[in-house]
Write a sequence for this structure.
């Protein structure tokens, strides 16, 4: 078993009582540009526990709300051997501590996304005039 480092102890204390980052996975999507891309996002959003969001850099992500199997009572059962993704997670980005939304726009369901598309379509028409 690897020796605990000060960084590990600091991270563990920083995360004490919080498991927010262990309750979802998100992966980047290509920015939608075609009708098919938009239709795929609608399809994603028709599924339970799936969201799509645009971050502050205008990157698109799909999020699956699903807890990690190594999570028990808000503790990581494999903390010392956790995947690199977990080790490299920047606690400064944690919404539990910085109280800022990580995303600019979040779509919880297909209706929210369709409304966004309709609003953007109307805004584009106004800007062309």
């Amino acid at each position: 078993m690897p020796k605990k480092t000060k960084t590990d102890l600091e991270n563990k204390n920083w995360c004490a009582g919080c498991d927010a980052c262990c309750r979802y996975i998100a992966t980047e999507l290509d920015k939608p540009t075609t009708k098919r891309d938009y239709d795929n996002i609608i399809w994603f959003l028709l599924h339970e526990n799936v969201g799509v969001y645009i971050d502050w850099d205008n990157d698109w992500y799909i999020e699956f709300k699903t807890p990690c199997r190594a999570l028990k009572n808000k503790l990581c059962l494999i903390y010392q051997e956790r995947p690199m993704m977990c080790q490299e997670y920047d606690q400064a980005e944690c919404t539990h501590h910085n109280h800022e939304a990580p995303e600019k726009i979040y779509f919880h369901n297909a209706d929210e996304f369709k409304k966004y598309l309709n609003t953007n379509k109307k805004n584009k028409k106004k800007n062309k005039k």
Helices lie at 6-14, 35-45, 84-87, 95-98, 110-128.
